[in-house]
Amino acid sequence: MSFRIAAAPHGHSQQSTSGMMRWVCYALLPGLLVQSYFFGAGVWFQLILAIVTAYLAESLCMMARNRDARSALRDNTALVTAVLLAISIPSLAPWWIIVIGTAFAIIVVKQLYGGMGQNLFNPAMAGYVLLLVSFPVQMTNWLPPATISSHDLSLWQTLHTILFEYTPAGYSVEQLRTNIDGVTMATPLDSVKTALSQSYTLDEIFQRPQFGVLAGVGWQWVNLAFLLGGAILLQRRIISWHIPVGLLAGLLIPAFVAHLLAPSVMPGVLFHALSGATMLGAFFIATDPVSAATSPKGRLVFGLLIGFLIWVIRSWGGYPDAVAFAVLLANLSVPLIDRYTRPTVYGHARGDHNGN
Amino acid sequence: MRDIKSFVEAGLIGQFPGGIHPPERKSPANQQPLRRLPLPAELVLPLRQHIGPSGQCLVKVGDNVLKGQQLTEAKLSQGLPLHAPTSGTVSAIEERPTAHASGLPEMAIVITPDGDDRWGPKQPLPDFRQQDRATLIEHIQAAGIAGLGGAGFPTAQKLASQKPIQYLIINGVECEPYICADDRLMREQADEIVSGIQILQYISNAEQVLLAIEDNKPEAIESMRNAITGIDDISLRVVPTKYPSGGEKQLIELLTGAQVPHNQLPLDVGLLMQNTGTAYAVKRAIIDGEPLLERVVTLTGECMHNPGNVWALLGTPIDHLLQQGNFQAEEETRVIMGGPMMGFTLPVTAVPVIKTTNCILTPTLEELPPAQAEMACIRCGACAEVCPATLQPQQLQWLAKAKDYDALEQHNLFDCIECGACAYVCPSEIPLVHYYRKAKAEIRNIAREKAKAELARQRFERRQQRLEREKQERLERHRKAAEARKKMQQEKAQQSAPAADQPAATKPAQDKSSAVAAAIARAKAKKAAQQAAQQESSDKDT
Amino acid sequence: MSIVVGLIAIGVLALIFGIILGFAAVKFKVESDPIVDQIDEILPQTQCGQCGYPGCRPYAEAIANGDDINKCPPGGEATIKQLADLMGVEAKPLDAAHGTEDVKKVAVIREDECIGCTKCIQACPVDAILGAAKQMHTVIEHECTGCDLCVEPCPVDCIDMVPVKAKPETWQWDLKSVKANVSMADNIPVKMVE
């Protein structure tokens, strides 16, 4: 008779990393559905491309490192990276965009740093930034929301555009973005930035067709759907509230104050909350635990920093949206945040870190 | 201090950070009344059962012993004495596997019971209030009582502290899942526990006693509440169920709202904590004059088909308990001594019950699934959220894997109470506590090695000094010998010279001859010195 | 004129900084052990002489004077790493010419064979062997460094180097070793319920 030797504790809460990552993907579904409703089915093709690329890249890396590829894929972290990147890019971006971005995210940002748990930067956002600075045109070609678009693309037309950069009828994405009046429809964030630089006031800008009751048409619902997904993650205790709350506070409090002071040039709370990737960033991107701060207090600071950076870059930066840059900058400051937010250990005087 | 007083007087229950709520599974074992077992075929009593060195053995193989007879001798601060749990013969004193996670053998006294269970003389002190404190403490020491809750710290040593005690805390929390030994004892022996508490209070001179029980034991609470009615200075505190609220530091924070400062003991802030089982053992030792011979052990887990709590004599082989619990082995069964959070697996069942054995848990694989393959840490922070010591387990884990022992100590690894909450929640199933235990053992080992190296260095240096000193002494001896010889020769020369040519001697001639004699003496001295040096170097060679 | 002002200004600045530096050198002086002491601290103090020097201290002095750091088999990789950190040089593998890393051992004298020649007592660098001429000798176990130096001189070969026995209190939580630990006590009959 031989007994099993094991280390205590002998039970487990049954919450697993792969399960958590799977739930992150489930919670993204509402946002994905709304996004595909407003911005076309392209996002699903991007998703498939991203997942295939991510799995291939991860397997190749694990094989090159002489590790078991199957176990690495089982943790679902590559899946989450792929899904986040696919959601972040314009749905009609050419196929090689997402392939390059995902491969970079997995191979360079994740695996070259030592694989799961070792990466300093959020892989999806690092991939996104690489694409944004390398292919600015393709990466900003967002279609206008379906409800105000003059084009309605079938699945085949969408796939054709992604693969060959033209619809079967020969339209380019640039042409698709143009409405009946011959005006190119920029994203709400982009149009606000451009129009403000042309000395329009916000009131005038918000009269334009791409703005709806809350913020930009389409974008507002996409953001609300991601907020719903975030609520699911919070409820299932897959993420803690610190980062989302910190991020939203860091973004919205300055926005609120600035809007009070300069209502004609500084957009308000609703616009910031429901534009661009705010909610996706707050609940799904910034909450990537690997590249975030660790202690609850540290996470609050981390979230606040991201939110504030988003607001600063949106208000004065060169790019319309800023979630990716803000997250990467905050990733850089994680060691510093961690150092100064170390919790006080039981029985130690507050702030005493044993000589640190 | 004032803070604690106002907190306690307000009857508040505080909070400690972190903690988890694993399934409790106290039933069915807590539904069965305590039962006594038939005597096992042999009793194995490891000489070391507790923190501290082992005692001096007082018996030899073949001796007949009576129940309660002392087997080993140990003075206060040197561990605890052992007693024969029943009457019988000492059949062996040899190495046996011990109740330790390592399974390493240790010296043990093996007793074959004669079945009579014949008591030796008892020394009860029923009117304990007539005795002075020192006598009672000595009595408790002589009864071999160790803390029956966890680490098995000798109770008398705790009581012997001269620091003023404000609150005596009696720990009946029993927060670890499955274990219900204290629960059953409180239900069935409430009055005796209360007598024990009163003795402890009398010895420690505590102003007030706080009796803490977790709110998942309503029967025990009821029973203890009845037992303490009319006793003003014992108050019952019901604490919410959360693991590890029974940890000494955690319970103190719950009951007093204050933390025990780092590097201090509860005694330093006027608190003394004892387990309910210990209180019971103290009562038996003082009032009935019976040393610690048995304890309550929970037999539980789904492989145990007759679960429950039993009075097990110290030294009872686990085999015997498993038989009594009707244990049905499965493939890859774990036999865990202790609870599911902090217990350790036993490699063999020949190990005995010792003073700190509170539970034998034999779960099925479905009941407590074994840990899956460890995945990489994703820094999710779940471990930090549940850590009752507010450590950063994920950070400690990185450091432990990197073997960065200095940083581990800086991150307060030694404040970890090894409760296992972090590993319980870790989604990557990293055996965090195991890493900490290893790191702690390694750090202690390094410290030990260092102390040993220091000792060796001192001894080496002293030896070098000694050799040097001996060499000098030898040289000195040779020099003296040479001098003496020289002197002798000079005297000889002086005696002979005048005798030879005394009348004809002119002054220069005399000078010349004495110079020659001196040169001869010098040469001889030199030769002697050389011989001495040779002899010395040959001394060295041997 | 302006050159003079410049010179004066620079001169005054130099003076001020000089004073500050001088002050700092006194005020914030770091007392550090001489390098030999620090090296000696790291060495395992077995005094075995495997490095070719008569003891750890002489080897520490030799390292301070530029000798290689990889000549200490009892210290092994860990000591080499620490020495490399201290001396600011690259860690290198143990020099096999001086021996290989081994488990910790202590000397044990087979006492009935000992003839009481005291040769081992003279060889022991830490005076860990007890005995007198024509009397049986014995090793003080916890003071033995396992240096091996007493084995060679023994004329009757009655000294064994035995591995240090694992004890529960010094066990390193190596769960894989548990089964092996138990098999040491294998002769005990284990009754099991079938």
TrEMBL record, chain A:
Q: Which family does it belong to?
A: Belongs to the NqrB/RnfD family.
Q: Which ranges form a coiled coil?
A: none
Q: Transmembrane residues, as ranges?
A: 20-38, 73-89, 120-137, 211-234, 241-262, 268-286, 298-316
The protein here is known as Ion-translocating oxidoreductase complex subunit D
One CC-aspect GO term: plasma membrane
Function statement: Part of a membrane-bound complex that couples electron transfer with translocation of ions across the membrane.
Q: What superkingdom heads the lineage?
A: Bacteria
GO biological processes: electron transport chain; transmembrane transport
Predominant subcellular localization, coarse grouping = membrane
Its membrane topology: Multi-pass membrane protein
EC number of the protein: 7.-.-.-
Which cell locations does it reside in? Cell inner membrane
Key words of the record: Cell inner membrane, Cell membrane, Electron transport, Flavoprotein, FMN, Membrane, Phosphoprotein, Translocase, Transmembrane, Transmembrane helix, Transport
Self-association state and partner proteins as the record states: The complex is composed of six subunits: RnfA, RnfB, RnfC, RnfD, RnfE and RnfG.
Which cofactors must be present for this protein to function?
FMN
Where, per the database record, does this protein carry FMN phosphoryl threonine?
Answer: 187
TrEMBL record, chain B:
Which organism is this entry from?
Answer: Idiomarina aquatica
For this UniProt record, the keywords arranged alphabetically read as follows: 4Fe-4S, Cell inner membrane, Cell membrane, Electron transport, Iron, Iron-sulfur, Membrane, Metal-binding, Repeat, Translocase, Transport
Going by the record, the broad EC class of this enzyme is translocase
Q: Where is the composition biased (Basic and acidic residues)?
A: 462-490
Identify the coding gene.
rnfC
The protein's name: Ion-translocating oxidoreductase complex subunit C
Needed cofactors, names only, are: [4Fe-4S] cluster
Q: What does this protein do?
A: Part of a membrane-bound complex that couples electron transfer with translocation of ions across the membrane.
Subunit note: The complex is composed of six subunits: RnfA, RnfB, RnfC, RnfD, RnfE and RnfG.
UniProtKB/TrEMBL annotation, chain C:
Domain 4Fe-4S, which positions? 31-89
> What is any one of the record's Gene Ontology cellular component terms?
plasma membrane
Keywords linked to the UniProt accession: 4Fe-4S, Cell inner membrane, Cell membrane, Electron transport, Iron, Iron-sulfur, Membrane, Metal-binding, Repeat, Translocase, Transmembrane, Transmembrane helix, Transport
Q: Which domain of life is it from?
A: Bacteria
Q: Where does [4Fe-4S] cluster 3 bind?
A: 124, 144, 147, 150
Start and end residues of each stretch annotated as Hydrophobic: 1-25
EC number(s) reported in the record: 7.-.-.-
Under PROSITE patterns, the record lists:
4FE4S, 4FE4S_FER_1, 4FE4S_FER_2
Q: Which cofactor does it need?
A: [4Fe-4S] cluster
Segments passing through the bilayer: 6-26
- Chain sites annotated for binding [4Fe-4S] cluster 1: 48, 51, 56, 72
The biological process GO terms on file are:
electron transport chain
- What does the subunit section of this Swiss-Prot or TrEMBL entry state? The complex is composed of six subunits: RnfA, RnfB, RnfC, RnfD, RnfE and RnfG.
Return the protein name: Ion-translocating oxidoreductase complex subunit B
Q: Which organism is it from?
A: Idiomarina aquatica
Starting at the broadest rank, the lineage of the source organism is: Bacteria, Pseudomonadati, Pseudomonadota, Gammaproteobacteria, Alteromonadales
Q: Gene behind this chain?
A: rnfB
